[in-house]
Amino acid sequence: MKKIFLSLLFIGAMVISCNKNDDDPIIDEEVIETLEEVTPDEVDIEVQNFFWQTLNTYYFWQGDVPDLSDDKFDTQTAYEQYLTDNPIPIDFLENKLLFSEDRFTFYDEDYTQLVNNSAGVSKSNGLQFGLSLIGNTDDVFGYVEYIVKNSDASTKDIIRGDVFIGVNGTRLNRTNYIDLLFGDNDTYTLNMAEIVDNTISPIDKNITLTKVENLQEDPILVTNVITSGDRKIGYLMYNQFVAGSEDALNTVFADFIAQGVTDLVLDLRYNLGGRGTTATVLASLIHGTNTNNLLFRTIYNAKLQAIFDSSDTDNFFVNTTGSANGGTNAALNTLNLSKVYILATGGSASASELVMVGLEPYMDVVHIGTTTVGKNQGSILFVDDPDGGNVYDETRIDNINPNVQWGLQPIISRVENSAGFSDYADGLIPDIELDEDITNLGILGDANEPMLARAIQEITGVGAKRSFEVVMPANVMSSSKLNNPRNATLLLNNSVPTSKFSLIQKK
């Protein structure tokens, strides 16, 4: 057996992001057969040790999981035997260590996949789409939400609002859509369709798309300034809170100011979250840069909460873009608004919800759309780096255990706004309910796009007689983003209060 010789508890850190990986683990049959035959002394327990040590210290529900109890083991030998008795890492994690109500912890055998995901880098063809059922059947159809710039899809004859019902000649249904659209095939052909009189019918058109490695999506998809009467309405569609995009956001707001913007429509309908630090910058660009105003507070498990003070948990509005991730630390071009219109739906989560909730005590937040996902929790990426508290730090890559390349992103906190509100696990309910109409998705950023048009109507009072009847509501059962739970993340911070943690101690 590989001896770990680690203390049963290490007190560590803080930080934050966010979903349980629902994919079935792929385990080689030969490995399973070997595990059934080996003696306990031959079981490698390094991964299990990494999981247990990390969750025992940081996991938000540590006190609710008996197997993570501080007094679970009397001796180091008992601890190592316990790890040995659980030879399959994923089963150990899922069945012994995760809290039953945890919806958002996730992991990967290759931590770099999680690093890339949080940076908006993926293997993708650039097609972002929603999926819905056809009537009361098990048949599934897809509709294009938007196309990522400079992707394979951006070079093909396919645009927002297009509909497809099959892949490679096979009709989509409840049981096959995951394999057909999210399987191992890098290239597939979509069989297109059309909607006539609320009926979806196939057409003689096929679009072949190919996924490419390291596609980096620009999170700022659309910006526009719309003049309506005496109002200048800024529009921003922002699709992921990516670290390093703060300066680009600041440039957008500088343009809004230069054009005399009086009102803002922030479109987060497809934004599942990301960096809390970026969310703080965006909130400050909207409302103001008073660094004495609390935007949100993080709440940790009892052990961590006991050693943290307000300087570790309180997050305030900011007045610069910051210097992390290549930022210029430039002064923010804030609009200093007292009211904002936010388009948010069942495709909005985490950092998107944090902006909405965080701004609420300071200004009028008008939520137009549908109920959001409901992610009031945060997590951070951990790797097997005991001397660094297991917190991922890109400057310490050489210190990661070469035998354990796993990444674990568990829920470690809950967030609340300055009024102490955090009760939105069931999602944020809209002030003005309006679903997307698949028969009329419109052009993003255009004043006639239904959700934006409804916001403009609310701002100006003009067009009060316009009907916003939804003929075929989205009723999203899944999407290219929602299928991957890693997209719904809230990374609030990526540093550790080193003055307040003791490293894993070797015996």
UniProtKB/TrEMBL annotation:
PANTHER family: CARBOXY-TERMINAL PROCESSING PROTEASE CTPA, TAIL-SPECIFIC PROTEASE. This is Carboxyl-terminal protease. One of its GO terms (biological process) is signal transduction. One of its GO terms (cellular component) is outer membrane-bounded periplasmic space. One of its GO terms (molecular function) is serine-type peptidase activity. Residues 111-172 form the PDZ domain. InterPro entries: ClpP/crotonase-like_dom_sf, PDZ, PDZ_sf, Tail-specific_protease. Keywords: Hydrolase, Protease.
